[in-house]
Amino acid sequence: MHIPDGLLSTPVWATTDLLAIAALVGITRRSQQTFNEKTIPLTGIMCAFIFAAQMINFPVMAGTSGHLLGGVLAAVFLGPWVGGLVLSLVLIVQCFLFQDGGLYALGANILNMAVVGVGVGYIVFKIGTSLFSDKAGFFFSVSVASWVSVVAAAAVCSVELGLSGTYPLGWTLAAMLPIHALIGIGEALISTLIVSSVLGLRPDLLPYFPQRVTT
Fold first, then answer.
1. What angle do CA 204, 210, 215 make, to 5 degrees?
2. Which domains, ranges and CATH numbers included, belong to the chain?
3. Closest CA to 121 of 192, 48, 39, 212
4. 37 falls in which pLDDT band (50, 70, 90)?
5. Distance (Å, rounded) from C-alpha 107 to C-alpha 22?
6. How far is CA 106 from CA 6, 12, 47, 48, 143, in A?
7. Dihedral of the alpha carbons of 101, 150, 86, 78, in degrees to the nearest 10
8. Residue 64: its pLDDT value, please?
9. How big is the chain by its Cα radius of gyration, in Å?
């Protein structure tokens, strides 16, 4: 999903760069309000983990593979603001050090994965946890939110490519969404497994798992 340079038209990448800068300013300011002795080291750990996890690809179907996005995972542990900051930092490092995603397209990648992926996924997660108050409902919310985050990010990416005239919008959506729907299943499984493992060892690291939740 990392868009390289050359696929977005100048108006599209310039607009997404400006939107990403504005979003990063807001995310950073809101994140500063939530930092404490626990979240600061956890933020560093989450950055390192998602960075490493995104380097590992799993096969989806013949000729295609996917990797962890990690947006919902970061938001479940750190909240949506710090979660968005974590994804942004990971994308910036990947761009400048590993050329994973283009420099001009960096704003689009941040917008797609760190803003839309984290934001939409977090909203779905919160809706799920408000509807289901038991442990199974909590894990179900993590799973569905993780899947939605990948599909939502892919949909926005498709629109950007379509607006750039790189590929027809309908063709791009038809090509991107089914593949990322499958990638989202892997995202859901990995995220839920990690959350479940941490819940068994350090439930205090999961602020959105309330004490009132029954097992």
1. 100
2. 10-205 (1.10.1760.20)
3. 192
4. confident
5. 10
6. 12, 12, 17, 19, 27
7. 180
8. 55
9. 17
State both tokens at 200: 């068994």
Q: Which residue has the tokens 């819940």?
A: 199
- What integer pLDDT is reported at residue 101 of this predicted model? 87
Question: pLDDT at residue 34 above 50?
Answer: yes
**Distance from C-alpha of 68 to C-alpha of 36, rounded to nearest angstrom:** 27
pLDDT in tens, 66-109: 788 999 999 999 999 999 999 999 999 999 988 888 999 999 99
Tell me which residue has tokens 């000729």.
63
**Average pLDDT value for the chain:** 90
DSSP per-residue letters across 153-213:
HHHHHHHHHHHTTSS-HHHHHHHHHHHHHHHHHHHHHHHHHHHHHHHHH-GGG-TTS-TT-
